[in-house]
């Protein structure tokens, strides 16, 4: 346990540098084929959508770093039907949105430049569509063994949060060793010093995660360099109380590549993906069927 975290000062860096560091690459690899069914174009207010939850046929999402501390409910046709500010929150670098039956969990855990040594996850009762605003409970975290510096090659960034049972599972985006570390913590308010319990050899930068509430299957989204561009990947793996059963994972390239930022299970066979406004010129949603991961392994 520790005292209330203090966010370290963020050094000003040109936006282009931040964007390229966030992706580690700036141009998607061109492909003529596609295994994603594009379904929805988001309005411009969601150009930086970086998280997904799914509830009662509505998508809940948020914008990432520096934007308003607001949750958006969006129809599958792309219409914003609700905007719910979080009264006691600040969007330093929001990157993920997880859910259980009663709460959303907003992960303010982005750390592209390794300029932060403490982070917050906002625990929020699922709002009604007519909610004017909502108050969050705070889950504060620090990494055990945190090391400052190494802006372009550190292991203390995370953009992927999921719920499994009574726990939150946070997956890191390691620029240092290319793996994704799993951190497990209670989904209750409090202050936590977190340690890695498992390292997944994704050899790519993990940007999204979800765990199916009934099957406990994990889905991850990641990106990695390929030539002068980047490759988008999706991974599926069983989980148990001991962790991720990586020996049984399946994976595929997401086609076409884009800045895929979020994933959520629709049912046991299909996931919903979202991308920021990058290669397509707009942010939006696409569907990916799990069976396609059997046909195009990436490792």
Search tags:
299 residues; Tachylectin-2, Chain A; disordered N terminus; four-stranded antiparallel sheet; 1 helix; 23 strands; single chain; mainly beta
Q: What is the terminal separation in angstroms?
A: 40 Å
> If you compute it from the alpha carbons, what radius of gyration comes out, rounded to the nearest whole angstrom?
18 Å
**Order of the strands making up the biggest sheet:** 6-7-8-9-13
CATH architecture classification: 5 Propeller
Strand content: 35-45%
Q: Approximately how much helix is present in the residues? A: under 10%
- What is the 3D form? globular
Overall pLDDT score = 89
Runs with pLDDT <50, length 5+?
1-21
Structurally, how many domains make up the residues? 1
What is the ordering of alpha helices and beta strands?
Answer: HEEEEEEEEEEEEEEEEEEEEEEE
How many DSSP H or I helices? 1
Highest-level CATH class: Mainly Beta
Number of strands: 23
What structural class should be given to the helix and strand makeup?
Answer: mainly beta
User: CATH topology, which one?
Assistant: Tachylectin-2, Chain A
Tell me about the largest β-sheet. 5 strands, mixed
